[in-house]
Every structure is written in structure tokens, then in C-alpha cells.
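Changelog note: in this version the structure field was regenerated for every chain. One regenerated record is shown below for reference.
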Amino acid sequence: MSQPVTELRRARGRPSNLSALKFSSQLLNLLMIALSIAAAYFMTIQSIKVELAAKAESASVAALDKKLGIVEILLTEGVLNKEEFYRFSNSVDSRLARIEYLVSPSRQESTRDPRHP
């Protein structure tokens, strides 16, 4: 008769360990749910950012295309023909190269008077 009583006491001791295990399991499940919600939130924000960046890029490309179209229209209307434009562009490039040559530090050192420090 004493044996069933000791088994009953042992059985009573197990549920306390089992309830602690259930509590930690539930706590782990709750933590995993919170982490998955946070991950879903940040993934949604990131995808919205990517979509907005793509829209902004396409808008800027469209604006540049429109501006280039206007320049092409001006060129074809005869305001400025292509040959004059290329001639002007080359003259500006050559002028800038000459200015750069005159302002360069090696040019300034060679033109300096050796008697004046």
C-alpha cells in the first residue's frame, strides 16, 4: 500500500517540471512569433523603398529624355545646326585646355623668375 502513494508523489513532481517546460516552450513560441512579425514588417518597408527608388529612377530618366527631345527639336529646327554645335564645342574644349595649361602648377614654376623666391 505504501508503493502507490510514493508513485503518486513522484507523479505529482513531474507535472511541475512539465509545466516549466510548457511555459518555456510557449515563451519560445511567443518570441518566434514576435521575430517573424518584425521580419515581415522590415521586409515590407524594404520592398516599398525599392519600388519608390525604381519609380524615382524612371521619372528622372523620363525627364532627361524629355529634355534631350527638346534639344533635338531645337537642333533640327535650325536654331543651331550640328556642325556649328560641334565647332563651338571644340572651340570651348580648346580654350579650356589652354586655360588649364596656363594655370597648371608646372607651368607656373617654369615661368617664375629664379631671382625671386
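Spot check on this record: Residues 2-63 form one domain. The chain has a mean pLDDT of 77.
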